[in-house]
Amino acid sequence: MDQYVDKGPLEEETRNIKEVLGMHVLSKSGRDVGTVKELRTDEENNFEGIIINRGLFKKPAFIHKAYIKELSPKAVLLEIDPTFMYYRMAVITSDGKKFGTVTGIDRIRNTNKVDQILLRRWFRTIAVDASEVKQYGASVMLQKTYERAKTDFT
Questions:
Q1: Measured between alpha carbons, how far is 15 from 55 in angstroms, rounded to an integer?
Q2: Is the pLDDT of residue 105 over 90?
Q3: Cα(76)–Cα(68) distance, rounded to whole angstroms?
Q4: Residue 149 CB neighbours (<10 A)
Q5: Is 0.70 topped by the overall pTM?
Q6: Cys-Cys crosslink for 100: which of 15, 34, 57, 121, Cβ 3.0 to 4.6 Å?
């Protein structure tokens, strides 16, 4: 193949976009959050992000390039754990007791920053401000103990 390059990589140092389509997308914590459905560009064809297919009955998600750490040979690695991962997670208190289940996430604009979580406790939906959350991981942990959470959030 003839190559015509003034500045930039040679053809063998680049990647065919078709190879990225269908790749698995892994969150910061290593969870598989879907597969690459589309690569998106701006009007000048600069790469802006990916649309991921999250599975049957789930809405696709657009992940901006600022949240993408790397396009590895086998997967797309993210800098974040997308907030949609928190849906249906257990909400536990700082003393380890289950307090409810996440039913919704309110984000700050279109960022990955959480404004508040909505949780289901018995037959009630409770809004909990993000400042009340100690950490996100395999579950969502509140800063309060079970007894304090019962008093403050119900």
A1: 26
A2: yes
A3: 7
A4: 24
A5: yes
A6: 121
Same domain (yes/no): 17, 74 = yes
Structure tokens at 15: 């990647």
Distance CA 97, CA 111 (A): 30
Distance CA 90, CA 118 (A): 12
- Is residue 3 in some structural domain? no
Chain centroid, CA 59 distance in Å: 13
Q: Domain of 149: which CATH number?
A: 2.30.30.240
Q: Say if CB 81 and CB 113 are below 8 A apart.
A: no
| 83 contacts: CB under 8 Å, gap ≥ 6 | 105, 107, 112, 114
Which is it for strands 90-92 and 140-142: parallel, antiparallel or unpaired?
Answer: parallel
pLDDT tens track for 64-85: 999 999 999 899 999 999 999 9
